User: Fold these one by one.
Assistant:
Number 1:
Amino acid sequence: MKKTFPAVETCSSVGRENDTVVADMDGTLLRGRSSFPYFSLVAFEAGGALRLLMVLLSAPLAGLLYYFVSESAGIQVLIFATYAGMKVSDIESVGRAVLPKFYSSDLHPESWRVFSACGKRCVLTANPRIMVEGFLKEFLGADIVLGTEIGTYKGRATGFVLSPGVLVDEQKAHALVKQFGDDNQPDIGLGDRSTDFAFMELCKESYIVPYNPEVKPVPNEKLPKPIVFHDGRLVQKPTPLMAILTLLWIPIGFLLACLRIAAGALLPMPLVYYAFWALGVRVIVKGNPPQAVKKASGQTGVLFICSHRTLLDPIFLSTALGRPIPAVTYSVSRLSEVISPIKTVRLSRDRATDASMIKKLLEEGDLAICPEGTTCREPFLLRFSAMFAELTDHLVPVAMVNKMSMFHGTTARGWKGMDPFYFFMNPSPVYEVTFLNKLPLELTCSSGKSSHEVANYIQRVIAATLSYECTAFTRKDKYRALAGNDGTVSEKPKQKGANKLMGC
């Protein structure tokens, strides 16, 4: 006789603070029933395009085994194709920095309503534990994560599954009994398919999550924890079709990126705007850009205060103005320096030295700075460093925003020299540059305002223009979240007394 369970919509979430809930992941906590996109993300972000191709080629075999032989066999094929030979640290890094953004965008509202109402939360999943544990514990507040364990050798994954195998069907039930014991039944069990029934029958109450492609995910503003920082190159979830399109586009996109970069680097700046449009790069200019200051006038240049989306911000600022604007940056890769059409000057992180250098550059003309110190992809502004406000009263806020359909042009974990290439590899990237009004003299430091007041005011003005949220997060917060460090690495011994900063 076929076992039936009531739908999750019938489960009350009131008064569950002392209850224990056990839930499956794919198709239960998440709307999507397939884990293929997430294996593909790990493959591409930790192993590159060739690894993604390997996973894609293994997908037909995995599907046949999954649907006609056993769930376990199909998942084992995907695990081997994705993980064999991969560094364990890279897998953990992707699980911490990349996957939460995609998982959070697919959270099932009814399952989350019940799961979040319970005081103790456990997840039983066939996915490798190393891949999902970071998201489940940090973002969903899971206390226990029971998943498939993969074998490792000398810091690398073997691609094989450890005993008791892939957690499906009876293996989930055994894992549940091992964790809670025979006499301690969880209060609520949530699953979505027949291979979940074994563990659901061990719970006091059990509910099925029916498949409904029309159900909307939990909206961003109601997520248990907002995604401020995330990493990875892929913008869209790599479904099988999207993965194929991505692999086919990469060689074409790289050639197109080289052409776009060459146009930006070799053409006179007044022509770059039109060259970009001809090559599919859209530059949208809003507001009233200030005129260039004539050196003969004796007036110092304007300091453009830009929100920071990619390291290309100053280049698109220059494109919008039709003239090259030098930029100060905390660091930029050597390759980016070579191909940059504008002058870039590195800050030393020594306050007196940097202030003197910026003042000297302003005496020569206009200058651009991104006081956040690092990029942020989401609709948030990081804390603005206040030093710039002490150096000049000629401050023009600039709101920068970009749109990418395939690749992100920033990274915290990868090689930053490829950032411009990935941005320009998008089929039709968009940069919107909005020039705001020059800061009135009464709102500057010369009128008695503190540098922090000026910096915070400019942050709020840019945030209001973009409908972004101001935060107090810093560069260190970003790199601790995504790369497990504070964004600095030691210089080589011959270069004493300095730190080399890990790009934007």
Number 2:
Amino acid sequence: MSETLNGAAFDAVTVHNFSEKISEQVVHFHVMKLSGGFFLWVGSTPVLSNLAVSMSSKYDSMPLSTLVMGDPSDTAANSLAQRLAKKTKKQVFVSYSIPMKDSSLGLLVENRIKKELELHPEHF
């Protein structure tokens, strides 16, 4: 959706929320579509504990990725941002606020995101 402000066209920020019970835990997803990319928050409680950003580069097949804030030893947000940037060819911001008690939980969460990407690509 494009809007104009003082004669200049720009893409409006759109918001898409969805939730799912994964491994006995309710996981919430919040997507904000931005011009040329999107912000994805994943969590079970309303906390922004980290933030990673990733984007494609003409110099490497793997997108560039960095942790903007949070614990550098927790690589979940960085890794997810990088995989989503590679898949969507967009700049991706990710905040991943789910405790990793179960190693399969991360894979199930990522599969749910991929499913939503396939069902509703217009929100990303």
